[in-house]
Amino acid sequence: MRQKPRSAGGVLRWLLVVAAWSALAAALARAQAPAVEYAVKATDLYKFVPFVEWPPEALPPSDPLVICVVGRDRVSDLVDEAVNGQTSAGHPIRVVHGQSGSLRDAHCNILYVALRGAAAVDALDRVRGQPVLTVTDAAQEPRAAGVVNFVVIDNRVRFEIDQHAAAENHLVISSKLLSLAIRVTPRP
User: Which of 143, 66, 122 is nearest to 97 (CA)?
Assistant: First the structure.
């Protein structure tokens, strides 16, 4: 059986429907991209652990790995969910949320700073010289960047590593992790 050719109006209507669906699909994909970005960053916080060496007294084998979060952003909102039930390098993971001044007794191994400007600098200064892996998200100024600083390039989560800051905090970063960084600030 032969199909009846479509009228010009029918073809135009069909093209408009396809175009509308394509535009809707593209808009949904763009809306989901940031959600994936934040989930990747939240997960990376504990995925960095096997590639970082802490002094033995800072992370004894039987102790939990403590991820401290100061401030609030979309990444910090997802950290608990990302690490729920996870272990890293044989350590159970515990997440502590609070203000930078209240985390003194939390014994943080990782500090995620969800703050900007002077507040971020203050939080980072409080743990400078302590064996804490500091992680920030797209720091705008060098003093507000941690040992690891997330950046997004071409819709992909990437990171920079400051080996000088790592050495200052008595941490050694694996060459494997350094090779994945888009930029590495060398040790002094």
Answer: 66
Q: Which domains does the chain have, with CATH numbers?
A: 41-185 (3.40.50.2300)
Q: What is the pTM of this model?
A: 0.80
pLDDT digits (tens, 9 = 90+) for 103-157: 767 789 999 999 988 999 999 999 999 999 999 987 677 788 899 999 999 989 9
In angstroms, the CA 132 to CA 68 distance is: 10
Could you say which DSSP state residue 103 is in?
G
Query: Quick one: CA dihedral 5, 7, 10, 11, positive or negative?
Result: positive
Q: Degrees (nearest 5) of the Cα angle 96, 120, 97?
A: 10
Q: How far apart, in whole angstroms, are the C-alpha atoms of residue 144 and residue 141?
A: 5
φ/ψ of residue 123, rounded to 5: -65, -40
CA nearest to 34, candidates 69, 73, 86: 73
Are 46 and 82 in contact by the 8 Å Cβ rule? The answer is: yes
d(CA 109, CA 150): 18
pLDDT tens digit string along 149-163?
999 999 899 999 999
Question: What is the SS3 assignment for 5?
Answer: coil
- Which of 118, 182, 179, 185 lies closest to 150 in space, CA to CA? 182
